[in-house]
Amino acid sequence: MLHSGSPTASSTFRPLIDRFGRQVTYLRVSVTDRCDFRCTYCMGEDMTFLPKKDVLSFDEIQAIVSAFVARGVRKLRLTGGEPLVRRDIVKLIEAISATHLASGALDELTLTTNGSQLGVHATRLAELGIKRINVSLDTLDDARFTAITRRGRLGQVLDGIAAADAAGIAIKLNMVPIRGVNDDEIIPLLEWAHGRGYDLTLIEAMPLGDVAIDRSEAHLSLREVRDRLAETYALEPMNKRTGGPARYVRVGETGGTLGFITPLSHNFCESCNRVRLTCTGQLYMCLGQDDKVDLRAAYRESGAVGLDAALDRAMILKPKGHDFEIDRAEPAVRRHMSVTGG
Ligand code: SAM
Ligand code: SF4
Question: What predicted TM-score, i.e. pTM, was given to this entire model?
Fold first, then answer.
């Protein structure tokens, strides 16, 4: 649906509409490829991160965000890597908040985080207008947490979640269930989350980048999980649609919301409303395809005008759908989730 009521609407307002009639209203920005964790399904043990000079500056991120907002993007999610480990990240959030949230041009500014730095930043994030966040949490067991993240401490993340909650930020937990690793914790995590008023979303592991785990062995279909959960709980489908791969149910017994992100088992592409910016300024129009547009080059060469033209090129290139298949030996896409931004 076109947002004709957008504050950016005018006679020259040109929404971002691709060849298949889908309007892009949602931008995810990876602000860094770095992370303080090395989750087994996301990264290798020995990751080589980008030199700082290759990463977009805050000014460049701001210019790109402004270009998208001028073309009708209403929702912005900061991610990574771990967004809260980027130095001075709060300054970037302050700038975006002051420019685009305060004016009402953006409906929502949010982030996806591993929670390790939330204890430090939660209060300020709430003051800056962040109303909801996604926090990744795959287990409630200390030793398992350290095994999955290779270096994280569960207590620090739980303290961070509590700080965000106390600051009034709504919390959605993201869990990636992996067969034989944490699939026995789906119900405990569901009860824990809903008992505290948090939503829980289960994400099916996606074949992105080379990582240590064997993907086809570890793969757990969320359809199977949903069928198993339905033996214990009343799962009532909800209408909530976000234009992404998530489908939601209300759990009758807890009253909480449970999401399923199943990019492998279902096709969600026909309603896709989003694009993703890497921390080097590459715009990917699809998480599962390699088509991209270099927004940093466009901006460096021709400023705001160049960016605007690059967004038109991006809309022509946005593919109809993704190309994931779990059984193949090679990852469908070479780049890790931490590069494209989850
Ligand atoms: N560091 C932050 C975090 O962990 O929330 C933000 C970036 S992380 C790449 C975003 C989300 O992607 C997390 O919820 C993580 O669990 C998920 N993720 C990472 N690699 C994945 C994969 N191969 N398949 C499915 N989800 C993945
Ligand atoms: Fe870091 Fe998030 Fe990837 Fe874990 S999932 S390694 S926290 S970027």
Answer: 0.91
SS3 326: coil
- Domain positions in the chain are 26-340
**Ligand 2 atom 4, closest CA:** 39
- Region of residue 197 (left: phi > 0; alpha: psi -120 to 50; beta: else): left
The DSSP secondary structure of 5-32, one letter per residue, reads T-TT-STT----B-TTSPBP-EEEEE--
How many other C-beta atoms can be found within 10 angstroms of the C-beta atom of residue 59?
11
Atom 10 of ligand 1, residue of closest alpha carbon: 342
Q: Is 42 in the pocket of ligand 2 (CB under 6 A)?
A: yes
Q: What is the pLDDT of residue 4?
A: 42
In Å, how far from its chain's centre is CA 231?
30
Task: Give the distance (Å) from ligand 2 centre to CA of residue 82.
Answer: 6
Which residue, 132, 151, 142, is CA-closest to 82? 151
pLDDT at 289: 79
Tell whether domain 26-340 is in CATH 3.30.559.10.
Answer: no
Which atom of ligand 2 lies closest to the CA of 42?
Answer: 3
Q: Residue 84 and residue 298: Cα distance in Å, rounded?
A: 27
pLDDT of 328:
46
**Cβ contact 188:230 at 8 Å:** no
Q: Running along the chain, 342 residues long, what does each successive block of 10 average in pLDDT?
A: 44 91 96 96 92 96 98 98 97 98 97 98 98 98 97 97 98 95 97 98 79 66 93 93 83 97 70 93 88 96 97 93 56 58 58
